[in-house]
Every structure is written in structure tokens, then in C-alpha cells.
Amino acid sequence: xxEVSAALLRGAVFLAGEPLECLVTLRNPLxxxxxxxxxxxxxxxxxxxxxxxxxxxxxxxxxxSEDSRHDVQAENETVFVPNRGERGHCxxxxxxxxxxxxxxxxxxxxxxxxxxxxxxxxxxxxFRGQAVKYVYKLTIGCQRVNSPIKLLRVPFRVLxxxxxxxxxxxxxxAVAPSNPFLEEEEGGAKKDSRLADxxxxxxxxxxxRRSLHLYNISNSRGKVGTFCIFKAVYKIGEDIVGTxxxxxxxxxxxxxxxxxxxxxxxxxxxxxxxxQPVSYSTHARHQESCxxxxxxxxxLPIPLSSAPGFSTNIVSLKWRLHxxxxxxxxxxxxxxxxxxxxxxxxxxxSGVEQMDVDTFSWDLPIKVLPTNPLLASSVSQVxxxxxxxx
Length: 390
What we know:
This is RGP1 homolog, RAB6A GEF complex partner 1. Pfam families: Rgp1. This protein is mainly beta. Helix content is 7%, strand content 44%. It has three domains: 3-61 and 71-160 and 374-389, Sandwich (Immunoglobulin-like), CATH 2.60.40; 164-208, no CATH class; 213-334 and 354-369, Immunoglobulin-like, CATH 2.60.40.640. The strands form four sheets. Strands 2, 4, 5, 6, 8, 9 and 10 form a seven-stranded mixed sheet that branches. Strands 13, 15, 16, 18, 19 and 20 form a six-stranded mixed sheet that branches. A four-stranded antiparallel sheet has the order 7-3-1-21, with no helix packed on it. A hairpin with a 2-residue loop joins strand 11 and strand 12. It is elongated and about 95 Å long.
């Protein structure tokens, strides 16, 4: 018996274009004083990254698969297929790397191997939607002689920042200032750190630009108020802050609801039926009664576990703010309650029991980008490690 464990070195969230590093440890759990006959042998082990695509058959029409091979493994088969036994389609994979061949472990002995692979920049981001899913996994395959292959899978999450691959190799790297008091970094490590720093700089530049966006809110009866937001580009983990001004409106607003939503749209060529509805998911909402309110505001957090906006040949994901307003048909409802009389002349004021109202909605598109993968890893529910016994 051999225990095999795999652990990602830097959390379970990565940017496309970053290197993924994993330590694979194999251990013979028998006590060291066991006999030599208790030594264990493994023929080989390989590792590979792949992206598995799942689609809802009722919403997505995919062409028939050209791969007609049966998903059955013979007892002595040595072909390493990382996605064997999984549902869906493998749409992206890296070349397999052999970790070792003919490994012998004595009782109590363990050996650790390092696996490193660059994540492809042309793949989709990790996404779990209502119609499709993109799931990334690192698969380690191990086999004893004349035994079936055992697969150990470690799931992880990939964020895609479009345009990052165009800046991976800056031309001024050779003339960049260096610190003589620090040890020279290896070329790969230096490039990796520059890539992470560059991604952070690009995200900061894109999401820190503030400009006042002012919108008039009105319906067929007149103006309700104005809405103000300070930017339209965010990264996951940020808060969306907006303000309302109802003091200049002609129509009293009784209540409003703001929802942060994603729009999952199947591309026309892959729709199961023409004109099928778009899928919406709500990630945060704010509801408030605002009669006799002149100014108010809201704050909606973008969950770190959500996917940024993206588009593939099958599906596109967009973000929006969805507003719903309830307004009164009587302008007199804007009047505030009368001021209280002196204590000796007690009286009571109560609101109306019924009123005629109108409702209407409005959608405001926003752009949501990825965030620093280290920040997303701090709250990720993906463990980034797994183990099995052969």
C-alpha cells in the first residue's frame, strides 16, 4: 500500500499565464522496522492539467462527439487519460509530464516530486453557471505493474485577464534597475513575479478610474429622481456604491430594489432552440422604502467566488445592475407628515392604507474583471490538495 498526496504550493486560484506548482508525495505507511518484503513498487506516475466542459442538454446543443472510444480501462492498460470517467468534454489540456518510473519505497520511506506547468492563456475561466461549467483539474496518474491506473485529481480555479499575454515579456526587462543587496532571482521566478505584478497594475489601472455617471430616472408620468455611480468597471471583491436623489423628482418613489446580476447567454449557434431565454443569477441585492426620502445610497459587494465577465464560442457572461422602482400615482404622497402639536393637544398621524402605484425596471450594464489570485485564494472553498491510497 502506498499513500499518494498532492498539494498546490500557492493556494487554489491562479491567473491564466501563471505557473502552477504542485508537490506530489508518495509514502509507504508501514513502520520502518517491517521486513524488506514489505517494500512497495510503482511502475510510473504522470501529471497533466485539463479543463473539463459540462453543458446542460436542455439548453445547449453541442455537435456529436467524434471520439467513439469506450471509457473502459483494461487491467494492464498504460494509457494515461486524465479525464477518464468524467462527464463532459475535455476542451483544453497541457502535455503530460512523467514524474518517475520504477519507484521503490521501503517501509516508512517517502519521496516527493515537484510538478510545474504554465497555465494556458487561451482557455476559458473557471465558471459554474446554469447552462455550462468550465472546471480545471490537475490529475496525477499512478500505476502498479499489471494493475489499473489510479487517478488523483486536484481541482483549482483559473481567472482570465484579457490582454495579459500581450505584456508577458516586457522589452525593458534587461535594463530594469536591480538591487545589489539581494540575491539574483532565477529567470523563471523573476518573470512569474513580474507577470503577477503586471496583472495587478493592469487591474488597478482599469478599475481605479473614477468619473461621475449621472442618470435620470423617469417613467411615463414624469421624473422620479437621479442615480449617480462613480465608475462602471470593477474587479471581483469590490463594492459597488451608488446614490439616489429623489428631491428633484415630480413622482414620489415609494420603494426601490437594486440587484447585482449576471447574464448567462448561450451563443446562437449552440442554442437548443431559437430565442431561448437568457439565464440570470442574482449575487447581491438591496431593498429600501424611500417615501419622504430625499437622498439615499446602497452598497453591493461583488463576491470573490464569482466569475468575471467573459465570452467563448459557446457562452458569454455579462454583469449588470437591475433596478425596480415602485412609484405613487399621486404627487401628494411626497408631502411629509405634519409636525407634532404641543403635548397638551395630542394627535396621531398615520399613513394611507391604500394607494395607486406604478412599477418599472431598469438595467445598467457594468464590467467586472478578475482580481489578485492571492486575494481570491484566501476565501476559496477549493482545498487545493487531495490524496489517495494505492
